[in-house]
């Protein structure tokens, strides 16, 4: 869920060793930062997710871990308002780790699944915004900048789902202590992926479907 800032899986893998169906072991990629000779077979193997061969070794790119992070949810009157605010967030100069959108129906399903009530009552569209940084002041500034960018889209009061910050004055703290505050992120992401798969295969004639 952090592809916006850190990229997708292939961008974190420098080199792989893989056993192909012919029984031979091949090495694709390079430990160097730049390797652009020929086809990018490394990315092909990674994208195949195990269907073309078995990866036995991988050289990964490591990043220093930011010391401060937050996940905030921003409610909007409608889902369209929420979706339209995303380009404004990215254009504002903020580099979030995560930007996910969901509608009230997803929240209703979550409440039914966990037999709990989410504290945000207003809004039918929501943006889940993730930010991390090496300083608390920078993370706070990025959140404040993002909230300023979404004001033209009728954004309502944001709520923090999780934060390691000093100042919550620009957000509603009612959700910060919510017991299942992080589960909503994974649950919403799972629902979104299932929805995308349903759209992808809805017109396919698949055995057993």
Produce the secondary structure layout.
Blueprint: H1 3-6, E1 13-20, E2 25-29, H2 41-48, E3 53-60, E4 68-76, H3 79-91, E5 98-103, H4 104-114, E6 125-133, H5 136-149, E7 159-163, H6 183-201
Antiparallel strand pairs: 1-2, 1-3, 4-6, 4-7, 5-6
Helix pairs in contact: 3-5
Q: Any descriptors?
A:
alpha+beta, 3-stranded antiparallel sheet, 4-stranded antiparallel sheet, 24% strand, 33% helix, 6 helices, 209 residues, single chain, elongated
Walkthrough of the structure:
- The protein is of the alpha+beta class and 209 residues long.
- 33% of the residues lie in helices and 24% in strands.
- It is built from 6 helices and 7 strands.
- It has helices at 3-6, 41-48, 79-91, 104-114, 136-149, 183-201, and strands at 13-20, 25-29, 53-60, 68-76, 98-103, 125-133, 159-163.
- The strands form 2 sheets. The protein has a 4-stranded antiparallel β-sheet, with helices on both faces. A 3-stranded antiparallel β-sheet has the order 2-1-3, with helices on one face.
- A hairpin with a 4-residue loop joins strand 1 (13-20) and strand 2 (25-29).
- Helix 3 packs across helix 5.
- Residues 166-170 and 176-183 have low confidence and may be disordered.
**In what range is the share of β-strand residues?**
15-25%
Pattern of helices and strands: HEEHEEHEHEHEH
Mean pLDDT: 79
In percent, how helical is the residue content?
25-40%
**Ends distance:** 29 Å
User: Which radius of gyration do the C-alpha atoms yield?
Assistant: 21 Å
Largest beta-sheet characterization? 4 strands, antiparallel
Give the low-pLDDT segments.
166-170, 176-183
Structural class: alpha+beta
Shape: elongated
Total helical elements: 6
The strand count comes to 7
Trace the largest sheet across and list its strands: 5-6-4-7
